[in-house]
Amino acid sequence: MSGLLPFFGAGLGFLFISAVESIPFSSAFPSHRYLPLRLRYTSSLTLSSLFLLSSLHSTFASLSSTHDPLGASLPLSSVAASSLFLLYSLSGYLSLPPVALLPLPSSFLDLLAVFSFGLEFIYFYLRRKDLDGIENRYFELLLVPILVCIVSTVLIISWPRSIAPRLARAAGLALQGTWFLQMGFSFFTSAIAHGCDIHEKSRANYTIKCKTHEEYHRARAIATLQFNCHLALLIVMGTVIYGFVSRNKGSIDNGYRPLNKEVQMGTAFSRFTLESDEEDGEIVVESNGHESGEVALHVPDENGTVEKISRD
């Protein structure tokens, strides 16, 4: 259960940051304009601090273990990513008005976020203590939402006013959160794949091994299926939330206007010509643009004279 708590806390933390990330900024209430940013930086500061403390606790707890030489060094590999996330959170929080102690542009903060996600990507990509461990498959699938966060943050730097990159980063953070929860339950509870067992040498040094080669393949397939279910759940929930928000916001203006308004907004006199293929002349339609809606048709007759037909 001790190994489940860090994954459980990480999952809930990423889900909360994702919910805050999806909150749009509002200029209608200036006093609450920076509230989503404050919540984002505060939650990321708390989560990165907990990651850092957990790594240091695992390191000191493994120093007394003589049968595990890697137990003290493995947790230190995540300190770099946790420290950079901590720096990003502190810098962002101190740069917020009204008292901006460290005024930094948002593009610089997003660049720090890119490097932080990049270190997280490298950490889980290189985390292979046992090449046959089933946990490696879970860590490989975790790289997908991390990569989404990296790409979306780069797009935020390029288009800071666009909403789509921020929603993509919120989706990547949400998928990270649910997948951390899944890893915790799949590693340290009875939800582990049948025929596989966890072998723990220390708090940070563990691996999941299966009895036969067929059970290895089945456990990897189960991990892929679980990730697909998490992705499908994220898509369904995102669609439902978007539909709910769109319905409360009201119908979107499609750009069409009634014809009478278009006539009233037109010029005081409009004129267009309908040319005929024959040589007998042309038909001219004139409108005075007033509320009476009077339209004049100038129709030439056979003798070349013009007859004016008015119709209200």
Name a few traits of the molecule.
312 residues, two-stranded antiparallel ribbon, alpha+beta, 6 strands
List the helices and strands and how they pair.
Elements: H1 4-21, H2 35-63, H3 79-94, H4 106-125, H5 135-158, H6 164-188, E1 196-200, E2 206-210, H7 213-249, H8 259-264, E3 270-275, E4 282-287, E5 295-300, E6 306-311
Antiparallel strand pairs: 1-2, 3-4, 4-5, 5-6
Helix pairs in contact: 1-2, 1-6, 2-3, 3-4, 4-5, 5-6, 6-7
Structural class: alpha+beta
Mean pLDDT: 78
Uncertain segments: 26-31, 251-256, 289-293
Percent of residues in beta strands: 5-15%
Measured between the Cα atoms of the first and last residue, the distance is 84 Å
Please tally the helical runs, counting DSSP H or I stretches of 4 or more residues: 8
* General shape: globular
Q: What summary fits the major beta sheet?
A: 4 strands, antiparallel
Q: What is the strand tally?
A: 6
Q: What is the C-alpha radius of gyration, as a whole number of Å?
A: 32 Å
Tell me the helix content: 55-70%
Order of helices and strands: HHHHHHEEHHEEEE
What strand order characterises the main sheet?
Answer: 3-4-5-6
